[in-house]
Amino acid sequence: MRVKISALAALVAPLALAAVYPLLPEYQRALMSRVLILSIYSYGYAVCFQMIGLMSLGHAALFASGMYGAGLYAFYVSPDPLAALLVGVAASTLLSILFGLVSTRVGGSYFMIGTLLASQALYLAALHFNEVTGGEQGLVLKKEATIVGALGPLLSELDARYFTSLAALTIVIVCVTILSHSRLGRLFHALRDDEGKLEALGYNTSALKLVAFTISGALSGASGALQALLYGYIGAGYAGILNSVEPVLWVLVGGPYIQVGPLLGCLAVNLLSDLARGLLRGHVLTVGAGLVALAFATGRLRWAYRLLGVSRGRG
Amino acid sequence: MFPLEHLGLALFDGLVNGSVMAFIALGLTIVFGIMNVVNLTHGELYMLGALTCWLLVQSMLPYASALIVAPLVSGGVAVIINMLILQRFGHEPGQTILATFGLLLILQQVALAIMGPAPRSVQAPFNPVIELAGFSYSGFKLVAGLVSISISLLVWLVVEGSRLGSLLRASQENRMMAESLGIDTNRVFMVGFALAGALVGFAGALTSPFRQIHFLMGLDALAMSFVVVVLGGVGRVGGTITAGLALGLLESLTALLLTPTLARVLTVALALLYIVARRLGAPRGGWRY
After folding, report:
1. Which of A25, A151, A166, B217 has its CA 20 to 30 A from that of B189?
2. Do B93 and A118 touch (CB under 8 A)?
3. By the CB < 8 Å criterion, does A313 face chain B?
4. Is A242's CB within 8 Å of B261's CB?
5. A208 with A191: CB under 8 angstroms?
6. Does residue B8 sit within a domain?
């Protein structure tokens, strides 16, 4: 019954987001479009963190590879947003296979250190090749290379961003909901809860991990690609460490239901952080304080404790 | 097309940089290698040491005072973090990583509020140019390298040979057993954190005359420390020193052909390859248990 309610909530959420749009003032509309794009990233992260219980500290690299794949294609090759989106997702999917391979061979805190190092290497590489990537300052895409530009005749810039990201998010929510109820999703949960038993039953757990990472990477990359193509900007800042840890916070704040949790967590953290702008000198401090608070709260949240405990069990 | 005329300088600079790298990683060897606590604030403690040095020199105090105050500041912050936060959940890995990641971001922002976004620098107290075979070298950097390697060797002796070292290992390996033998493991961990913090704070002050002081400098120090600790063999102080020296040499030599950033990318990638090849953290015989 609980599962059905969360599945229902997953279908209601996009409708609610569409219904609330006309009521919002302009600033909140812009803020919400950004949060919706990030929510896709949040779902992507949840697929590996929440479903199979692996806490990666390098997902910014997956997000950024989607962003760079799409952005660089649109900037250098051809100003075609749809092709650029596909290139971005393909790039991050390829990279996620590397992460998946790491996860099948390395355990415990070494997995986190390994993913941290992987994303740091890619971040430095993005800085090094700054003649191509624009480095920290980034590149600005031509308007006709972006989705906003392509939708220009139909929708205003603000509407185009909001509804494109909402449409993409809806597809992601439906896919993740279907996945979580499918046989594959249940295998993911079994992998999280007891990898040894699953292996004893004859399942190939390495292959399952690879599949989970590929899905996770594709979603994270799609989020990065949309970010690039809706805002027309790519920069190395998105490959930084902050972008790796934020989804951990979103997923843990969002609660145990993967159908809606990543969206709720992402909304809650980003809206709170926006409210606290004046109070806490910015977003980074909010995220930092949130992580410390969560570390304390985890002792009381059985669900979160199990998620983090699983990462420990593999050490 | 190897630039031979710079080879001597590269080798020498590599050794000096390597000693410094090993010295910065030393605290992480104790906390992560021996005590098995994934302390992601290690780099920020290094940054705090450098920041303290900058603040002291700004307020007209002699550079030498920083070498005393910076270890106290970083060691103090490490102890406070351990006492108020990490000890509360018994250094549970998942919670520790969340909390230390949060603290990393908070410390960065504190540093940003204090020194602003621009990189800062500190004048070396003395800096004679030393003429070596075919090249000249900064006298201060040479002294800093010598100090780094000497303290590292001393810490190696202490950790391998003294009671403190065995207490640290015992408290990590079997906390319950150590407690029932009458060892106050919380106090042992506290000493470990204080030592690690003080060492890396000292390193921060020691290196600030020849490195840029910036509120984001801790991240690179953290990543490189993990690289050095992991490549040196986790928990082995001697290994950390060797790995630091070897990586310092490797980076200077690759930087001759490529740029320093690319050399860094390759070093980090090498460490990742090592972790994957050695299957660190994976249960013996694959995942089957």
Report:
1. B217
2. no
3. no
4. no
5. yes
6. no
B3 within some domain? no
How high is the ipTM of this complex? 0.86
Asked if the Cβ–Cβ distance from B98 to A308 is below 8 Å, we say yes
Check which CATH number belongs to the domain holding A215 and give it: 1.10.3470
Size of interface A-B (CB pairs under 8 A): 159
Number of domains making up chain B: 1
Residues of A in contact with B219 (CB under 8 A): 120, 241
Q: Please say whether the dihedral angle defined by the alpha carbons of residues A302, A303, A304 and A310, taken in this order, is positive or negative.
A: positive
> Do residue B98 and residue A200 have CB atoms under 8 angstroms apart?
no
CB B217 within 8 A of CB B47: yes
Identify the domain containing residue B118 by its residue range: 20-218
The pLDDT profile of chain A, 315 residues, written as one tens digit per residue, is 456 777 787 888 888 998 888 888 888 888 899 999 999 999 999 999 999 888 899 999 999 999 999 999 999 998 888 999 999 999 999 999 988 888 888 877 888 889 989 998 999 999 888 888 888 888 888 888 888 778 877 888 888 899 999 999 999 999 999 999 899 999 999 988 888 888 889 999 889 999 999 999 999 999 999 999 999 899 998 998 889 999 999 998 888 888 889 999 999 999 888 887 765 567 888 889 889 988 888 877 777 777 776 554 443
Does B67 fall in a domain?
A: yes
Specify the pTM: 0.89
Number of separate domains in chain A = 1
- A248 contacts in chain B (CB < 8 Å): 98, 101
User: Which range of residues forms the domain containing residue A69?
Assistant: 2-313
Q: Is the residue at B93 inside a domain?
A: yes
Q: Report the chain B residue with the minimal C-alpha distance to residue A292.
A: B99
Q: Cβ of A284 and B105 within 8 Å? A: yes
